[in-house]
């Protein structure tokens, strides 16, 4: 897939960009709201929006499109913007060639995880706080009339479908959250860490990883059935 727009990095500069790549839509800022107006990709229109909840916007998003397909990534950062920015910079690059399968998606996720882990190790002495950042990762790829979905973290991907007869839009959930409140996730963590009785702790009325956070970060849990094939009509 040839790219037509670079990663979207709202929050890195004070001034919103007034220019855009071909078809990408214009990046605008309105208070704490960052958004792109309607743009074009290989299969139709798109728009994006982020609301800045913290002093620094921790989240990243991107859309890459060309004649062969369209890639959309949403990265919900935690503890700082570093992990989300790294994923935005490298995950798409780690997809090899134009072929998309469950295996190539897993490989791209794994290479990105390994790359960020190596970066944390390299900068441990100067930037130890880098190790405390993480990100959820939600990816959709449309290729040859097939939609591939990959999810890691507690974000949720929802597909809106319009009934051609009634015009009614139906929401279809395409991913399952990786959250410590989910029984299966707690069981998986316990199996992965049999020597750590406090890998999940019930604190403040919810289950938390190490008693701290609910979400399973990008580099804390292996991939779980990340891709689904849906025919797009």
From TrEMBL:
InterPro entries registered for this protein in UniProt: PP2C, PP2C_BS, PPM-type-like_dom_sf, PPM-type_phosphatase-like_dom
Highest taxon, organism lineage: Eukaryota
GO molecular function: metal ion binding; protein serine/threonine phosphatase activity
EC number(s) recorded for this UniProt protein: 3.1.3.16
Pfam families in the cross-refs: PP2C
Keywords: Hydrolase, Magnesium, Manganese, Metal-binding, Protein phosphatase
UniProt KW Transmembrane keyword: no
Residues of the PPM-type phosphatase domain: 45-233
Cofactor(s) required, per the database record: Mn(2+); Mg(2+)
Similarity-based family: Belongs to the PP2C family.
UniProt name for this protein: protein-serine/threonine phosphatase
Species whose genome carries this gene: Lupinus albus (White lupine)
